[in-house]
């Protein structure tokens, strides 16, 4: 019987104190592992060093799993599990396998009946929804919206219409250096009474989470440039 496990290890959402958002049990898991599958080696090593400074970095086996990883490389990772080696998956920020390439490995592990152990930690998507005041019973996450202006307008209008018909809270994200442009697009495209939440730098000291109507955002002072954010939109 294969005793190897896949641990889904949440990482920090930014330069914050890990004791605020990570249970002690997570640290025990990290201490017990020597093999990690990560989206970015540099940031993963930095995270491990921060939460478990006693671990010897040179003794860690780090494998990369990102958007450019080929399917055959993922199956190579499965050979580690076949040998009984437990893996810890660490994403670039937040929860592994949620809007994250780690989901590919988890899918294969499940198909092979390898035990997958999700650990508790910060999720920018869920924390933004919690703080937005919008529909926590019915919501959808869409990842990144189209960059092309025409396609983005169509997509936003479609999501607004869906929210109007169903009450679904629509959640999406943007590349941080385009955040301010996203707010401008939302105020220009959406109806004046449509609610928009911008949840910026979640869990960090300068956390900024505001829910306003599109009309109110058009006169609001803000600067979300290069600051990771989640957007939530809903029509009441």
TrEMBL record:
<protein>
    <submittedName>
        <fullName>16S rRNA (Cytidine1402-2'-O)-methyltransferase</fullName>
    </submittedName>
</protein>
<keyword id="KW-0489">Methyltransferase</keyword>
<dbReference type="InterPro" id="IPR035996">
    <property type="entry name" value="4pyrrol_Methylase_sf"/>
</dbReference>
<keyword id="KW-0698">rRNA processing</keyword>
<dbReference type="InterPro" id="IPR014776">
    <property type="entry name" value="4pyrrole_Mease_sub2"/>
</dbReference>
<dbReference type="Pfam" id="PF00590">
    <property type="entry name" value="TP_methylase"/>
</dbReference>
<dbReference type="GO" id="GO:0032259">
    <property type="term" value="P:methylation"/>
</dbReference>
<dbReference type="InterPro" id="IPR014777">
    <property type="entry name" value="4pyrrole_Mease_sub1"/>
</dbReference>
<keyword id="KW-0808">Transferase</keyword>
<dbReference type="GO" id="GO:0006364">
    <property type="term" value="P:rRNA processing"/>
</dbReference>
<dbReference type="InterPro" id="IPR000878">
    <property type="entry name" value="4pyrrol_Mease"/>
</dbReference>
<feature type="domain" description="Tetrapyrrole methylase">
    <location>
        <begin position="28"/>
        <end position="216"/>
    </location>
</feature>
<dbReference type="InterPro" id="IPR008189">
    <property type="entry name" value="rRNA_ssu_MeTfrase_I"/>
</dbReference>
<dbReference type="GO" id="GO:0008168">
    <property type="term" value="F:methyltransferase activity"/>
</dbReference>
<keyword id="KW-0963">Cytoplasm</keyword>
<keyword id="KW-0949">S-adenosyl-L-methionine</keyword>
């Amino acid at each position: 019987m294969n005793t190897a496990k896949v641990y889904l290890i949440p990482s920090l959402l930014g330069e914050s104190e890990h004791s605020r958002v990570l249970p002690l049990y997570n640290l025990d898991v990290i201490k017990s592992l020597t093999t990690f599958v990560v989206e970015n080696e540099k940031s993963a090593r930095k995270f491990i060093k921060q939460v478990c400074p006693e671990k010897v970095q040179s003794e860690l086996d780090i494998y990369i799993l990102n958007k450019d990883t080929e399917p055959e490389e993922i199956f190579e990772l499965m050979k580690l599990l076949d040998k009984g080696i437990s893996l810890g998956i660490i994403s670039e920020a937040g929860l592994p396998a949620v809007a994250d390439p780690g989901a590919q490995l988890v899918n294969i592990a499940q198909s092979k009946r390898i035990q997958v152990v999700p650990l508790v930690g910060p999720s920018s998507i869920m924390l933004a929804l919690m703080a937005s005041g919008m529909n926590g019973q019915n919501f959808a996450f869409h990842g990144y919206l189209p960059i092309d202006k025409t396609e983005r307008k169509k997509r936003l209008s479609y999501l607004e219409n869906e929210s109007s018909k169903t009450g679904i809270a629509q959640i999406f994200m943007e590349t941080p250096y385009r955040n301010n442009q996203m707010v401008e697009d939302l105020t220009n495209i959406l109806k004046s009474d449509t609610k928009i939440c911008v949840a910026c730098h979640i869990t960090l000291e300068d956390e900024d989470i505001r829910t306003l109507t599109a009309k109110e955002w058009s006169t609001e002072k803000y600067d979300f440039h290069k600051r990771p954010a989640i957007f939530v939109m809903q029509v009441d």
